[in-house]
Amino acid sequence: MARDIHKAGSSLPPYFSIDPDAALAELDAPTGTAGFAGIAAACAAGRTDLASRGMNEEGKKELRLFSTWEITRYLIPVAQAHFRRVLKANPDLPQGRSETEGGAKWFTLEEVLRLRAFFAAQGSKAKDYQPYRPEGLPAKMVAVANFKGGVGKTSTAAHLAMSAALDGYKVLVIDLDSQGSMTSIFGGKVDDEWQTAFPLLARHYGEHLRLENQRRLDRGDAPQPLDEALDAAMEMTAQDVIQNTHWPNIDLIGAQLNLYWAEFQIPVWRMAARSWKLWDALTERLEADGVLDQYDVIFIDTPPALGYLTINGLSAADILLVPMGASFLEFDSTGRFFDMLHSTFASIEEGENLAARALGRPGLAFEWDAVRTVITRYDGAQQGELAALMQAYMGRVLSPHKQDFTALIGQAGEQVSGIYEADYRDFNRETYARGRETFDETYAAFKKLLIGVWRREALQEQRAAE
């Protein structure tokens, strides 16, 4: 029998002297296709168990309450004493509830939004009770993308959405990743691809096919038939797939595994109708269904690959955010991601503009209002030098704000919730304040970008009207 040489004080590494019979004894039986189903079922059961810990008795996620301390520190810029005086003078306003007699008052986010609106209408005009939002302009769409996994893509998108909601914006989150992590964060229920963005893409193709068929009939040619799936999609709108979440001002278009089918179906449609502009599908359907007028900010979480769903998300976006870690491999991978973006969109432009020139039509040119990379899970003690090097090479494209990794991030992740969903009483005020500070700064950097983009567009419209 082989003895454990390491327990005997040997300095040899653990991969020496592995006994073949001992290794065989620990080996499982070979795994067939059915084995994957068993592993998936075990993970599904565990996922359900973990997710249920953030749900109420009805099996739904429920947003926590917010204390007077939180409201006056983070949400409504007034002193606590003034806040209390306003509530006392206006008994019709939400008064909150105390968990103990004489204890702190706690409010739902719906109540906070109502209070914010009151202060905006009645309070000092010098304070920003409501976030900047030019009238008459559509929602800004923000894609969060990188084909490198583990960079905090979904976490960044989710926390920005929550930050914007707490700030008073009306938010829509679109999950284009078939893994459905964003959908899980917001407690979405998606049974199949017909409750995802897929029917919006299918309807866009179906409408194009109908126009093409009319042209065929006008020429005397036979039309291409619409299959049952396309017929069903033609009856659907964005409102059919948008669902409420436990956040009163965040809605969701969710995702699940079947959404990946779109990566196979879209090229089939494209081959059948080469003139179909697949990259416009998501944007034009959201616009046609009035979604861009119903929300302030739309966050799009893309898959970690540059496929057809990602192309739709990137094409729809006004702002592109690319999370990345401060490591050589992630810096290298992100550079290759941008190289692939250039190749992909340049190829689309070249193909479209070749035809446009021949027909005397305007050419196609993709454009984004702003593109930023964001360093996530940052450890200043270990990664400061590399981050400075990345900043030197990337310049303004790399946001100077770095999202620190804190213990609170890990703890919130274990609870299947975002930082802003965590109750500070589970830590303490000081730990909570330090932990959320890096996310507040991340949102502040994004909000400055968002406001700048909106302001530029508003001024352009103003000058055009003069």
Rg (C-alpha, Å): 26 Å
Mean pLDDT: 87
Order of helices and strands: HHEHHEEHEHEHHHEEHHHEHEHEHEHH
Count of beta strands? 11
Low-confidence stretches: 410-415
Q: Kindly state the percentage of residues in helix.
A: 40-55%
End-to-end Cα distance, whole Å, is 91 Å
User: What is the strand content?
Assistant: 5-15%
Give, in spatial order, the strands making up the sheet with the most strands: 6-7-5-8-4-9-10-11
- Largest sheet, strands/sense/barrel: 8 strands, mixed
Enumerate how many helices there are, as a single number: 17
- Structural class comes to alpha/beta
Question: In one word, what is the shape?
Answer: globular
Pfam families: AAA_31
Keywords: Plasmid
InterPro entries: AAA_dom (IPR025669), DNA_Partitioning_ATPase (IPR050678), P-loop_NTPase (IPR027417)
Protein name: AAA family ATPase
Question: What brief labels describe this structure?
Answer:
single chain, 466 residues, alpha/beta, eight-stranded mixed sheet, three-stranded antiparallel sheet, 11% strand, globular
